[in-house]
Every structure is written in structure tokens, then in C-alpha cells.
């Protein structure tokens, strides 16, 4: 047997090393897992259960009596098309929600989530438990909670171009349109809340809440309490949003309530600007009831009906 010349690498060994390097360095390609009557997966839960990190679950139009727990990270769960005609309804997983998002950085898009019920009366269209969740063009209809977000102090919840219709319950502890616990940021953009029942359209214990370009309406038969509540303080920016307090509201004192419980979140700013606010209830209400020590800045807001602008620290421009 001839020994290899010193200073040279044996070619078979070099080839094997390069092959192993390529195998281990090769990226794992994301898959598209298709759901529908004539697709590989018949139910969304089957595809979501099979999904790995980075995969894309694509759901055909139709009604699915189904729920799912999403474990994978960087996962997209999407209805085919942009009309939310893929509907998951009538079932909750782990007594929590229709979709329970456990993985990090999940996107849910183009779905309708309806009729979430749980024994504790807090069933959610989405129960958010993992860090970072994006919700786009999703319709939440007749759930106890639209979105219920468990604490994620470093997480970001983004909701855009969605609709929350007739969610809410106070059979047990109150359930809301959106209820976010301690998150770093909750941002809600270009989204409509209609006819929330009993509880709040938006309740946030987040460090920062931003509501931009939304419509938040009780309507003639909505019985909601506040349009926005921040019970523990926290920074708040509300801009370019249309509010309407209705005749059936169960809490007529305010549109936006800040700090009505113990103040545990630093409140670096309260900016309420360029919003329209209409009171259709025939009672006196206030746009902002600020119970923190941070001055609220109100500017460029249009008030229609019996509405005082501000109660508590701050100024009105």
C-alpha cells in the first residue's frame, strides 16, 4: 500500500468530507401543504400537525369543523384567495381556541374563524401563545374571544386588514374582541370591530399599543364596554381611527380607558390624534379617561354628539 505524499490530502477522503459538508449545509426547503377535498390533506389540522419550521399551509375554500395547534416556527397558515372563504368553525383545541399558535413567528392569513367556545367561556378564534404573531385579512365572527394572547413580554402581535364581528362574552370572566396580555408591542392596523358583546373591543396589557386607521363600532345592538382599555397603563398611540359608541353600550363612561387597575406598565406616551368619535347613545361619554400620571396628548380629533374630550392629565389641541 502506497502512503499518501506528505502535505497532500487523499482524494477519497477529500470527496467524503466535501460531501458531508454539502449535506449538512444544504438548507431545508419550505414545503406547501395543501388542504381541501381533493388535496393531500383533508383538514387544516392534518396539515398543521405535519408542518415543519418554515412550511406554508394553504387551505382551499370551504367550511371545516376543525381546530389545530400550530407548533412549527416561521409557519404560514393561509386560506386560498383573499376573501376569507376558507372557514374553520365550531371546534376548539385544548379548550383554548380554533387556532392555538405555539410556534414563533407564525402568520395567519385569509381565513374566517367562527363560533369558538370553551368551558371557561374564553374560547378564541386564535389563542396566541408563541412569540410574534401576524394576522392578516382574517375574519373573526361570533367567538368568545377573537384573539386571546397569553403573555409574551418580548413578543409582537400585528393585526392588519381584519374584521372582528360580534365577538365577546361575559359569561365567566369577560372575553373580548382582542385581549392581549403582557406583550412588547400590539399593533392593530386598518381593522374593523363591529358589535362586540359585553366586553371590550380591544383590551391590552401590553407595554405599547398602537391602533392605526381602524373602525371600532358598537352599532345599534353592540353591547360592548370600552372601545379600548389599557387597565395597567402602557404607551398608547391611536391615530386615524373612527369610533362609535352605541345605544346599547354596557359601559357609557368612556371610549378609551387607561389605568383603571394597578399601573404596572411604563406609560411613555399617550397620543390620540386625527380620530373621529361619534356618540349615538344619547348619554354623555368621554373620549379618554386617563388615570395614569402621563399627560395624554389629544389633537385633531372630531367629536360628534355628547362627548367630553379628556378626563385626567393631559391637554387637548
Summary keywords:
317 residues; mainly beta; Pectate Lyase C-like; twelve-stranded parallel β-sheet; ten-stranded parallel β-sheet; 2 helices; 32 strands; globular; disordered N terminus
Q: What does this molecule look like?
A:
- This protein is mainly beta.
- It has a single domain, classed as 3 Solenoid (Pectate Lyase C-like).
- The protein contains 2 helices and 32 strands.
- Strands 1-2-5-8-11-14-17-20-23-26-29-32 form a 12-stranded parallel sheet, covered by helices on one side.
- The radius of gyration is 24 Å and the shape is globular.
- Mean pLDDT is 93; it is low at 1-11 and 18-23.
Mind sketching the topology for me?
Layout: H1 11-25, E1 32-35, H2 44-50, E2 56-59, E3 62-65, E4 68-70, E5 76-79, E6 86-89, E7 97-101, E8 106-109, E9 111-114, E10 124-128, E11 133-136, E12 139-141, E13 145-149, E14 152-160, E15 163-165, E16 178-180, E17 183-189, E18 192-194, E19 202-204, E20 208-212, E21 215-217, E22 228-230, E23 235-239, E24 242-245, E25 254-258, E26 270-273, E27 276-279, E28 285-290, E29 296-299, E30 302-304, E31 307-311, E32 314-316
Parallel strand pairs: 1-2, 2-5, 3-6, 4-7, 5-8, 6-9, 7-10, 8-11, 9-12, 10-13, 11-14, 12-15, 13-16, 14-17, 15-18, 16-19, 17-20, 18-21, 19-22, 20-23, 21-24, 22-25, 23-26, 24-27, 25-28, 26-29, 27-30, 28-31, 29-32
